[in-house]
Fold:
Amino acid sequence: MPGGGAEKRVYHLVIHDRHPDWDITIESAGYRFASDVAFRDVRAEEYVGLILSGGRAPEYLRYDADLMRITRHFFEQEKPVACVCHGIEIPAAAGVLQGRRATTVAKCRYDVEFSGGTYLDEPVVVDRNFITARTFWDNAPWMREFMQVLNAGRGARA
Structure:
């Protein structure tokens, strides 16, 4: 499964950590992620699922017109979309949350609500093809639900 980015290159990721005496998260150097394809080169019709991760990147990626095109394609075609934490900023910017139920990290609640969706404070929310989770702490149930939706879709197309 390829990973895309604004450009095909290596990205430096950060680790978010929350300290008891801080009101916000602290960022430190993390892993590196090699993007296999630039968003402009993605042919969305060739893919069966989309994962939108969280962290700080969605704050910047939501301005990428090609990522908006890809995101809209997945929602229009009812293909499985998994979204965690700040990743919700991408479908919010793409204008695809109207009438949808979703969860996210609490401070992104308004991205859901201002985009016409309904925010639920639950570990995982499944709304048709859209599977959302609050944070990485919810990764196991989030991916379990995503794989069920993904596999159900593959069976229907086979």
Summary: The helical segments are 57-61, 65-76, 89-94, 109-114, 139-157. Residues 40-153 form a domain with the Rossmann fold fold (CATH 3.40.50.880).
